[in-house]
Amino acid sequence: MVAPVISARGLRKTFGEFVAVDGIDFEVPPGESFGLLGPNGAGKSTTMRMVGAVSQRTAGELRVLGLDPDTHGPEIRSQLGVVPQDDNLDTELKVRDNLIVYGRYFGISRALCAQRADELLGFAQLEEKAKARVDDLSGGMKRRLTIARALINEPRILMLDEPTTGLDPQARHVLWDRLFRLKERGTTLVLTTHYMDEAEQLCDRLVVVDHGRIMAEGSPSALIRQYSTREVCELRFGSERNADAAARLEGLADRVETLPDRVLLYTDDGEGLLERVARLGLHPTTSLVRRSSLEDVFLRLTGRSLVE
Amino acid sequence: MSQTTPSEETLPADVREMVAAATAGAVRPRRFGAWYIAEHQLRQMRSYGWTVVMSGIGSPLLYLLGIGLGLAAFIDVPVASGPDGPVDYLWFVAPALLASAAVGVTTEEFTYTVMAGFKWRRIFWGMNASPVSPPQVCAGLVIAVTARMVFVCVSYYALMVLFGAVGNAVTGLLIPVVGVLAGLAFGLPLLAFSAGISDDKGQFAMVQRFVFTPLFLFSGTFYPLATLPVWLQWIGWISPLWHASEAGRALSYGLGPGAWSPWVHVAVLVVMAVAGGVVARRVFVGRLRG
């Protein structure tokens, strides 16, 4: 069996009375793309900080690359690439210099830093911005630069905390494409996100986290199979009438969820269900049949929507 | 919680390989981490290099010209004495100006730069995610600022010699060292204070107005401390600026009547710097590893 690069057992972190991470277990084998999916405040970033060896655990076992982060922080961090939630690039330095100074923290020679910086600028599609000021970059470019910076030490594990939060759809797709290439090259990715589409795109396997606990674990498709139906009908009757309509729809689908703005019907045959709804004499203002997503898994597991 | 390193022999080959790579990867950062941080900070100073050069050369030039040609020519009464009687006013005031220039550097670098690192640009958090440790981040910043102070103090001293503002130019060579020490004695406690601030609500402007300026005015910079009423002299006794000025004067023209041994002044500066450094280091660790 291949040894995992990260293994956590009963991992726990408290801040005073507040329990941020409440005894979680997971393992990440090398080369896997592993995601922590959950709403804001679920304990994802705290978990990332413990794995990143910058925050001591309160209890439990944690091994990263076979070492204990509490005693071998510098050793572990020398093998990680970290993309934080908030950019912390040095805006007083030029784009390329940001990569070079960062590489130096790992004890990499200036010449090798410069060589890798040029390669990474290519990878991040920022060659033309090498001499630009960081402040002149767009949000998506800054993220790409942060990812390039995290790769300067050729890390075994790349950790990304909410990598595309705040980016426009096009910038997100460019970023996903870059991350997908890393995944193809065999880099282990550990990422947190509260976007289900991101998790579906990038993760081989993920855990759904809420209130510091793991609610479910599996590949995106397995989780959807296990916790949701193949298709979902989204019906809107107007915010006043959604609840009434939902009551009449009960029993028609495998499961009915009433949200403030719409009713969700879980079924394996969306079109067939729509016909039956019409036969009941119910006429939603809009109706939509779509595939189940991780959003539905999360709703099922927690009774709450991921992005609120 | 196990605190031990897994023993080599019992581990599977792939784990052993991971551990070996990680161990090798941390050797240089563990040893030189602070210097890498200093390298970054010095690169950053280039972006305001003009300010660094001007404060290093321009302002001493102005002070020495203004005081040497203006004020000193105007003052007839002997202000201070060395072992051989009264000394030039410029001799008296120059070591104090040098020390206050070093302290001035720290009122910029150990305030706004620290705030930028933790909050505005968050670069300390980036350093924190690398193999470099929080005490090394703190030490690296101190090294870079010390380098800037060395530049300021050495160029100040060169100009002092040029203006004939030093009694003994050989023992005087130690005046820049005392100046840097003054900067650290004032700056490291300030660094500890700044590193603990999470929101700038004008605290740094207050430090400038209510700490640095009074020290500059009441530390026997322009006239002997003994001229002040006793109830104001305590400002001098706790002021790194006064201790550095007095030590600098002793190095320039020797001990006047009633002067303390320069070693006492240097000892006070060292104690202040070390105490400030210890607290600053703790604040950095607490904040970055909280």
TrEMBL record, chain A:
| Primary localization | membrane
Coiled-coil spans are: none
* Membrane topology listed for this record: Peripheral membrane protein
The entry's localization annotation reads: Cell membrane
Q: Which GO terms describe its biological process?
A: response to antibiotic
Tell me yes or no: is Cell inner membrane among this UniProt entry's keywords: no
Q: Which residues form the ABC transporter domain?
A: 6-236
* Keywords, ordered alphabetically: Antibiotic resistance, ATP-binding, Cell membrane, Membrane, Nucleotide-binding, Translocase, Transport
- Family annotation (PANTHER family): ABC TRANSPORTER ATP-BINDING PROTEIN, ABC TRANSPORTER ATP-BINDING PROTEIN NATA
Could you say which protein family the record assigns here? Belongs to the ABC transporter superfamily.
**Full protein name:** ABC transporter
Organism, by scientific name, is Cellulomonas composti
TrEMBL record, chain B:
| InterPro entries per UniProt | ABC2_TM (IPR013525), ABC_2_transport (IPR000412), Nod_factor_ABC_transporter (IPR051784)
Transmembrane spans: 50-77, 89-118, 139-167, 173-198, 210-232, 263-284
User: In which domain of life is the source organism classified?
Assistant: Bacteria
Any one Gene Ontology biological process term? response to antibiotic
Q: Where does this protein reside within or beyond the cell?
A: Membrane
Q: How does it sit in the membrane?
A: Multi-pass membrane protein
Name a GO CC annotation attached to this entry. Answer: ATP-binding cassette (ABC) transporter complex
Q: Where is the ABC-2 type transporter transmembrane domain?
A: 50-250
Give UniProt keywords alphabetically: Antibiotic resistance, Membrane, Transmembrane, Transmembrane helix
UniProt entry tagged with the keyword Transmembrane: yes
Q: Annotated Gene Ontology MF terms?
A: ABC-type transporter activity
Q: Which PANTHER family does this chain map to?
A: NODULATION PROTEIN J (PTHR43229:SF2)
Q: What is this protein called?
A: Transport permease protein
